[in-house]
Amino acid sequence: MKQNTQQAQQAGEIFSAIVHTPFGGMGVRTAAGVLIEMVYLPKYFHEKAPTDVVAERAAKQIRRYIEKPGSAFKLPLAEVGSPFQQRVWKAIAEIPCGQVLTYGDVARRIKSAPRAVGQACGANWFPLVVPCHRVTAAGGLGGFSHQDDSDSFFLDVKRWLLQHEGVSGY
Known about the structure:
Layout: H1 2-14, E1 17-21, E2 24-31, E3 34-41, H2 53-67, H3 83-93, E4 101-102, H4 103-110, H5 114-122, E5 135-136, H6 152-164
Parallel strand pairs: 4-5
Antiparallel strand pairs: 1-2, 2-3
Helix pairs in contact: 3-4, 4-5
Organism: Herbaspirillum lusitanum
InterPro entries: MethylDNA_cys_MeTrfase_DNA-bd, MethylDNA_cys_MeTrfase_DNAb, MGMT_N_sf, WH-like_DNA-bd_sf
Pfam family, one: DNA_binding_1
């Protein structure tokens, strides 16, 4: 418990906002007028009021998504990732709310390999904005955020997000 409290205090220092969600929290980091990272956080992280305009916009859009999962995100994003990762993230961003594709489906669309797509999904700096939760394994849920079946927090987040968007069976 003491470690959780310490982690939460440190998070308050590095995040520009923390938004409470039904699955836990969403940490938002901004710098120089752009969003530089979004992070899924366990429930013991307390909400933090936005410290700047971009963090305020991100927090508002996260809350809107929680209320209405089909809501689009329109935020200034930092230019991160390799050209390949950016291609994968662009393909994932085109998956409509309430639908899923497999890693193989995305790989075929961009002429790549499923494992490479999975690695790019796990390296996503902007979850929710780039909805990697909409990408699953051919035989089930798959991993999430570079986590596997042994880390139930992230897989529980993925399940919640899919159910929230009306996708069942996971």
